[in-house]
Design goal:
about 70 residues, mainly beta, five-stranded antiparallel sheet, 1 helix, 5 strands, about 15% helix
């Protein structure tokens, strides 16, 4: 387990709204409901290698991307 996966588990692992969470590297994917999934991943919105944001993509399993937000910290 790397530092990104550990941080994602701390942030989202105990969420009641995320089901069947899968972690890999800097990314986690979880089910929101029957058709919607969320993909959460660390991103570097300016400086390469300086991961200062989490991007959240809401994905419909049949129609693709629904919404995308970047949360900077």
């Amino acid at each position: 387990m790397n530092v990104f996966e550990k941080t994602l588990r701390e942030l989202f692992g105990k969420s009641n709204s995320l089901k069947d969470i899968k972690y890999t590297g800097k990314t986690c994917i979880a089910r929101l409901d029957k058709d919607l999934r969320v993909k959460l991943y660390f991103t570097d919105p300016g400086t390469v290698g300086n991961y200062t944001a989490i991007c959240a993509n809401i994905i419909n399993r049949t129609d693709g991307l629904v919404d995308k937000h970047t949360f900077r910290f």
